[in-house]
Design brief:
Blueprint lengths: L7 E10 L7 E7 L15 E4 L2 E8 L4 E5 L1 H6 L10 E6 L18 E9 L5 E5 L2 H4 L7 E4 L2 E9 L4 E5 L2 H6 L10 E6 L1 H12 L1 H9 L1
Antiparallel strand pairs: 1-2, 1-6, 2-5, 3-4, 3-6, 4-5, 7-8, 7-12, 8-11, 9-10, 9-12, 10-11
Length: about 210
């Protein structure tokens, strides 16, 4: 579990086909060790949120942090386009004593949103579009996770299937979101509590209502 508060930005060192698993990729990321918020050196088996996707650390060495990204993860993310030099957001998993400054983030990418527009005329706002299946989980002033960053929905249009987030200067400095441009695909994770509520209403509410009436 994560909070959606990015601890540091890392640079992709390499992405190569996994030597032993078909369709998987071995990813190496070098964290920014000069960052005052750098994650403490993790251990193999630790969970790291890499731009919103929960990955298990295989090894930490002088080259960087090594992850194995399986085919299922690649199919649901934009990781197929990762190249050396690209930046990714990094957050280590939280503990029972961690301050929950963002919201509960699982690191399970629900799908990809598309950046429609970036506006700097009234603060810094990013408009993103989603398909109908994912848009149902976006609520006014609700929480969403964008490339691993916990953000609050600033405005939305259900009919047109878009929502906006407002980014403060600190978020722009500490994450990769300042580099995002119209047309970019970006990881989207809905609030897990909203997903649970929508699932229950869709599949069980009518059944329980009928039972109560009887």
């Amino acid at each position: 579990m994560f909070t959606g508060l990015v601890q540091t930005v890392g640079s992709v060192v390499s992405t190569e086909q996994h030597p032993a698993q078909s369709g998987a990729v071995r990813l190496i990321v070098q964290p920014n060790t000069a960052d005052s918020c750098t994650i403490p050196v993790p251990s193999p088996g630790d969970s790291i949120c890499v731009s919103g996707c929960c990955l298990t650390l295989v090894e930490a060495n002088a080259v960087g942090w090594v992850f194995d990204v399986i085919a299922e993860s690649i199919s649901r993310t934009w990781f197929a386009t990762l190249k050396p030099g690209m930046k990714v957001n990094l957050e280590q998993s939280c503990t029972p004593t961690t301050l929950l400054g963002g919201h509960i983030v699982q690191g399970h990418v629900d799908g990809l949103a598309t950046v429609d527009a970036v506006s700097t005329s009234d603060g810094y706002r990013v408009r993103l579009s989603l398909d109908n299946e994912l848009m149902q989980y976006v609520a006014p002033k609700g929480s969403v996770t964008i490339d691993g960053v916990s953000l609050t929905v600033a405005s939305l249009s259900v009919a047109e299937r878009w929502f906006e987030v407002a980014l403060i200067p600190e978020t722009l400095v500490r994450t990769t979101l300042a580099d995002r441009e119209p047309g970019d695909r970006i990881h989207f994770e809905a609030d897990c509590m909203v997903k649970a509520a929508v699932h229950w209403i869709r599949h069980y509410a009518r059944t329980f209502a009928s039972d109560s009436a009887d």
